[in-house]
Amino acid sequence: MVISGIMETTSTLPKAKDLMQEPPRSPRQRIGDYVLIARMADKCRATLNGTNAEYHFNCPLDNMLFDFKGVNGDEVCQVLLHGASDEQLLDWFDSHGTPKAPEEIKAWSAHMERFSFYGVPEKAEWFSQECRQLGLDPSQVSLFDLLEADDRESHKLMMNSR
Description:
With 162 residues, the protein is mostly helical. It contains seven helices and two strands; from the N terminus they run ββααααααα. A two-stranded antiparallel sheet has the order 1-2. Strand 1 and strand 2 form a beta hairpin. The protein is globular, with a radius of gyration of 16 Å.
């Protein structure tokens, strides 16, 4: 797989998870006050290591974070490719892209934790179908609830198939 000219490798990046063995961190897990950043970093590191399984870096979810901060996936990937720790990634995020006050970051993260595609006309059907497949009521769950349930189910199935 190529991420805008960066070839996925089989080298071992520090801190990279094997997403064939365990899911990325929850979208709720914050680095600094940013939601999504820990999950995105896990997916990028795993992609660079060739251990991303079915997880995709620079996906629409990651781009919600990138758009908020005014950075792009290629830039973030370069930072992680050079072995940045979570703390170094946070420092990079804070010093690049669109400046954000701590209150803006906290408000955006709180909004994202509650966000659901249930009320978004062009995504509601997809969201409802995905929720129902996991036994969730789409009118009662957030996107993060869906992702966490999908991670649990996907890894349960993966472990049972071995």
